[in-house]
C-alpha cells in the first residue's frame, strides 16, 4: 500500500510560527524533503526531530521526484517542505505532487506560514480579489514588459522577488505605473526587523535608493 505525501508549511522567519501539527507530522514520517538539506537539518534540530533528510530543488527536481515517488510507492510517508513558507507555492514540488496524483498517492496539506496573505492584509488595498503574479523576470526588458501587461489590472497585484532586487523592481514599477500608483512593501515579515512601507512607487523608490535594504519582501501594488 502506498504511503502518504505531506505538504508541510514552515515559518517564513519567526520559528514560533511552526504549528503543533507540523511538528507532530515531522516526528511521524519516514523521510523529510527540503529544498536545501542544511536548512532542513537546522529546522529539524530546532524542534528536536531526528529524521533522514533529502533535497528537492530546481536543480535536481526531475531526479529527486523519481526517487521520492518510489519511496512513496513502497509505503513510506514523506513530508515535503520549502526552506520557508508553504511548499509548492512559488517553490519546487509541483512535479512531485502531479506524479503523486497520477500514482493515486494520498496527499495531505499541512497549512501554516506564507508571506502572501500577511502582505495582502497589511497593505490596506482591497483584497476581495487579487492577482498573484509570483516572480517576475530577472531581466529588466522582459520585466518591464510583464509590468506593462499588468498596468491596467483592476485587482490588487502581488509580486515576489529576491532580496537583492528590491530597488530595481520598485524603480521599474514607478516607471511603468506612473507617479500616483500606490504600493506596499512588506519587508522581513514575522522577524524582529519586520517593516511595512507604504506610498507611491516613486516615493518608495527614492526612499530605498537612499537607504537600500536587503531582506525578504513582498510587493503589493494597488489595482487600477
- Computed structural class: alpha/beta
Q: Report the biggest beta sheet as strand number plus sense, adding barrel if it closes.
A: 5 strands, parallel
**Unreliable sequence segments:** none
How are strands sequenced across the largest beta sheet? 3-2-4-1-5
Amount of beta strand: 15-25%
Q: Span from first to last CA?
A: 52 Å
The shape is elongated
**Considering DSSP H and I runs of 4 or more, what fraction of the residues is helical?**
25-40%
Overall mean confidence score, pLDDT: 95
Write the H/E string, N to C.
EHEHEHEHEHEHEHEEHE
- What's the β-strand tally? 10
What is Rg?
19 Å
Count of separate DSSP helical elements:
8
Could you please describe the fold and organization of this structure?
The chain is α/β, with parallel strands linked by helices and 224 residues long. The chain has eight helices and ten strands. It has a five-stranded parallel beta sheet, with helices on both faces. Helix 2 (37-46) links the parallel strand 2 and strand 3 (53-55). Helix 3 runs parallel beside helix 4 and helix 7 packs antiparallel against helix 8. It is elongated, with a radius of gyration of 19 Å. It starts with a strand and ends with a strand. The mean pLDDT is 95.
Amino acid at each position: 500500500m502506498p504511503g502518504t505525501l505531506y505538504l508541510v508549511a514552515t515559518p517564513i522567519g519567526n520559528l514560533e510560527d511552526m504549528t503543533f501539527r507540523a511538528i507532530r507530522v515531522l516526528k511521524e514520517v519516514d523521510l523529510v524533503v527540503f529544498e536545501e538539506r542544511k536548512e532542513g537539518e537546522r529546522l529539524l534540530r530546532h524542534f528536536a526531530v531526528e529524521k533522514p533528510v533529502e533535497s528537492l530543488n530546481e536543480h535536481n527536481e526531475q531526479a529527486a521526484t523519481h526517487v521520492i515517488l518510489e519511496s512513496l510507492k513502497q509505503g513510506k510517508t514523506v513530508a515535503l517542505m520549502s526552506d520557508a513558507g508553504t511548499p509548492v507555492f512559488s517553490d519546487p514540488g509541483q512535479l512531485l505532487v502531479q506524479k503523486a496524483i497520477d500514482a493515486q498517492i494520498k496527499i495531505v496539506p499541512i497549512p501554516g506560514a506564507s508571506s502572501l496573505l500577511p502582505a495582502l492584509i497589511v497593505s490596506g488595498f482591497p483584497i476581495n480579489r487579487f492577482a498573484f503574479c509570483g516572480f517576475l523576470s530577472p531581466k529588466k526588458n522582459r520585466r518591464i514588459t510583464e509590468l506593462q501587461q499588468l498596468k491596467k489590472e483592476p485587482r490588487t497585484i502581488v509580486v515576489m522577488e529576491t532580496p537583492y532586487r528590491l530597488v530595481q523592481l520598485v524603480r521599474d514599477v514607478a516607471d511603468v505605473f506612473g507617479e500616483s500608483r500606490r504600493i506596499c512593501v512588506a519587508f522581513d515579515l514575522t522577524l524582529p526587523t519586520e517593516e511595512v512601507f507604504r506610498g507611491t512607487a516613486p516615493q518608495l523608490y527614492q526612499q530605498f535608493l537612499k537607504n537600500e535594504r536587503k531582506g525578504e519582501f513582498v510587493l503589493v501594488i494597488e489595482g487600477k
